[in-house]
Amino acid sequence: MTRTDLPQAPADESGPQRPSDENDPGSPAGGGGPQRPSDENDAPEVPQNAAAARAVVTRLLEAWSHGRSGEGPAEVVLADALLVTSELVTNAVRHGGGLTGFTAEITEDGLLLTVADASPEAPVVTERDPATAPIGGYGWPLVRRLTEWVSVRHHLGGKNVVALIALV
């Protein structure tokens, strides 16, 4: 099976739910009282641009490869991961009303990227005539081709684009 034949993950409109904790007054199980104010240090810092997001992914993959006795992803996998990161962050900035969140984590399946923006609109693919050499419009098809799966999860105030990149 080639990458282009891989299935896309279904969109999940609900998003992850916060676990209930009886000792947390802001939790449904804890009486539904006011939520604790969040500490600014609790949330990961949102990169200011695609270059900063690529740096986050590069550091993560370097740390991951050191934990595997230096056996990291192949150069082409690293290039794919950085290209997908650039495209998702750039799309959030250009078309999504701004980047509102970014996470990158290593899972047993690969590199999981979550890019949040302020727009509820899903990415679109515009049919292009190759003879006209249009500028732009290639990012989303590239993301879909280079990932194992990608999904769009809508939430109040925008959406998360979640993508999995295999590291093998």
Note the main attributes of this structure.
single chain; 168 residues; alpha+beta; four-stranded antiparallel beta sheet; globular
Explain what this protein looks like in three dimensions.
It is a single chain. The chain contains 3 helices and 4 strands, in the order ααββαββ. It is an alpha+beta fold and 168 residues long. A 4-stranded antiparallel β-sheet has the order 1-2-4-3. It is globular, with a radius of gyration of 18 Å. It starts with 49 loop residues before the first helix and ends with a strand. Residues 1-40 have low confidence and may be disordered.
What secondary-structure arrangement, pairings included, does this model have?
Elements: H1 50-67, H2 75-95, E1 99-107, E2 110-117, H3 139-146, E3 149-155, E4 158-165
Antiparallel strand pairs: 1-2, 2-4, 3-4
Strand order in the largest sheet: 1-2-4-3
Q: What would the average pLDDT be, to the nearest integer? A: 78
**SSE topology string:** HHEEHEE
User: What oligomeric state best describes the polypeptide chains here?
Assistant: single chain
| Span between termini | 15 Å
Strands, count: 4
Give the overall form: globular
Strand content: 15-25%
Enumerate the spans where pLDDT stays under 50 for 5 or more consecutive residues.
Answer: 1-40
Rg for CA atoms: 18 Å
What percent of residues adopt helix (DSSP H or I)?
25-40%
- Helix/sheet category: alpha+beta
The number of helical segments is: 3
Main beta sheet, described? 4 strands, antiparallel
